[in-house]
Every structure is written in C-alpha cells, then in structure tokens.
Amino acid sequence: MSQHIFGEVGTLIFLAFAVGLDAFSVSLVIGLQKIRLKRIAIISGMIGFQHMVLPAIGMILGQFISSQVGAFTTLLSGLLLFFIGAHIFFGAFATEQKHSPHPYGFGLWILGFSVSVDSFPIGLSFGMSNIQSFLVTITFFIVSSSLTLIGLLIGRRIQGMLGTYSEILSGSILCAFGLAVIFSS
User: Fold this and answer.
1) Number of C-beta neighbours around residue 92 at 10 A
2) 30-56 pLDDT, tens per residue?
3) How far apart, in whole angstroms, are the C-alpha atoms of residue 183 and residue 119?
4) Measured distance CA(19)–CA(55) in Å, rounded
5) pTM
6) What is the DSSP string of 153-180?
7) How far apart are CA 177 and CA 106, in angstroms?
8) Could you give the count of Cα atoms lying within 13 Å of 69 in the half-sphere of its Cβ?
C-alpha cells in the first residue's frame, strides 16, 4: 500500500517538475531584466498560484472536456510566449521613455497564464482518475514557485554581466521558446 502511494507521489512530483520547467526557462529570461527581490517573490507566487489553479480547474472539468484541448492549450501557450518575447525585444529598440519592463498587473497574469496553461490538460487527465486534488495543487504550487524563484535569481545574477543587451536577449529567447512550443505541438 505505501509503495503505491509513494509511486503516485513520485510521479506527481516528476510531472510538477516537468510542467514547472517552462516557468523556470521563462523566469531565467525575465531575471535578465533589472528586477528587485520583492518583484521576484511576487512573480514566483503568481506563477505558483496559476500552476495550482489551472490544474484544479482542469480536474473539475476533466470529465466534460475532450482530449483536443491539450493541443489547443499548447498552441496558446506558445503564442503567448512568442508575443511577450516580441514585445520585450522590440521594446528594447524604443527611443521613448520606457515604462518598467518587469511584469506588473495584467501583464503578470498573462505571463503566469502562458507558463501555467500546460498544467491544465494534466488537471483534465487527473480529473478522470482517482488522484487527490489537494495533493496535486499543492505539489504543483510548491514545485513551480521554487523553479520560478531559482530561475529569476539566476537570471538576475547573469543580468549584471550582460548590461543593455539583456532585453534583446530575453525577448529573443522568449520568441524562440514560444516558437518551439508552437511547432512541437
């Protein structure tokens, strides 16, 4: 009995890690911008929150939605990442006074959604099985928040070495990552 529970939890942690790697990759890029520790904590919490909410919604709707949603959410995630990257990239060339490039307000929600949306179909599949929703949502929150925090801190450290080219680099990486997500689906 305990081996079965351990196997379920191990699989869940592995899935949460795999889904959270998107957030880690994107947070590395965001960390390349000048960003304060308070903002890093907020971004990590928001991405973790959305990694918790989207699978929960997926579990609730799991029995009602077909398997076609998985491909759609992957495409949506890729498009959102690409457009966020394009915005950052072209914003680096703007000559007017720029507002802070850090994710704030609605932009932070969009960012969180774009890296968390791939957890929705996992929630759908869990909704059709007997996995406890509390365990899934807490695991996804902890793992994705931790990976985001680590990525932001690493990116922040690297940013000082890159200087003004960090926005161009971060926008280019996000565009490439978005295209990779789109074309891998």
Assistant:
1) 17
2) 888 878 899 999 999 999 999 999 988
3) 18
4) 11
5) 0.69
6) HHHHHHHHHHGGGHHHHHHHHHHHHHHH
7) 21
8) 17
